[in-house]
Design goal:
single chain, 188 residues, alpha/beta, Beta-carbonic Anhydrase, Chain A, five-stranded mixed beta sheet, 8 helices, 14% strand, binds zinc ion
Length: 188
């Protein structure tokens, strides 16, 4: 699937989800059996572990559709990057969607300087907020997404994300999920 088609598919799914019109695609026994030997997810979602932001529900997708990397603050360190690279290189995903969300506890903690218990996550969020003063939680969440998208986009040719992007076979985008409306807003 082309990157733009993958993005459209995600956003259409989010439209259904936000308007209470979930189709619950690809959850049949047939689908489950069809993907036993091989998966071919069309998108990678880099999302937060927060219980309110499950990508399959937010984007109304099913089994085998999304390759998901989920960690507090939707940060990308070496372990997360390995997963992303794998999906891009071997599974054919053509879109990497970095998704922050309203009221993210991990980003709030960094803003408040209360990071004693999430040091490693905080160390990955902090550079995104550096030099920015009096940020709201929403602005900080968005800055974190933009920072991660830019980091992924700046990967060089030694990285699958880098060379596939250059060849037009992969796109990296960022979004913000609004908890109350259920809508994902594209921000980058
Ligand atoms: Zn969060």
């Amino acid at each position: 699937m082309a990157p733009d088609a993958a993005l459209q598919k995600l956003m259409e799914g989010n439209g259904r989800s936000a308007s209470d019109q979930l189709l619950h695609p690809n959850l049949t026994v047939e689908r489950r059996e069809a993907i036993v030997a091989k998966q071919n997810p069309f998108a990678v979602i880099v999302g937060c572990s927060d219980s309110r932001v499950p990508p399959e529900i937010i984007f109304d997708q099913g089994l085998g559709d999304l390759f998901i990397v989920r960690v507090a603050g939707n940060v990308v360190g070496p372990v997360e990057l390995d997963s992303i690279e794998y999906a891009a290189k071997y599974l054919g995903a053509s879109l990497i969607f970095v998704m922050g969300h309203q009221n993210c506890g991990a980003v709030s903690a960094v803003l408040k300087g209360q990071t004693a218990e999430i040091e490693d996550v905080a160390n990955l969020i902090a550079p995104a907020l550096e030099g920015k003063k009096n940020l709201s939680v929403e602005a900080a969440v968005k800055a974190n997404v933009v920072y991660i998208v830019n980091s992924l986009k700046s990967l060089g040719d030694q990285s699958a994300v880098g060379y596939l992007s250059k060849a037009g076979k992969l796109k990296v985008v960022g979004g913000y999920y609004d908890l109350s409306s259920g809508k994902v807003l594209l921000i980058k």
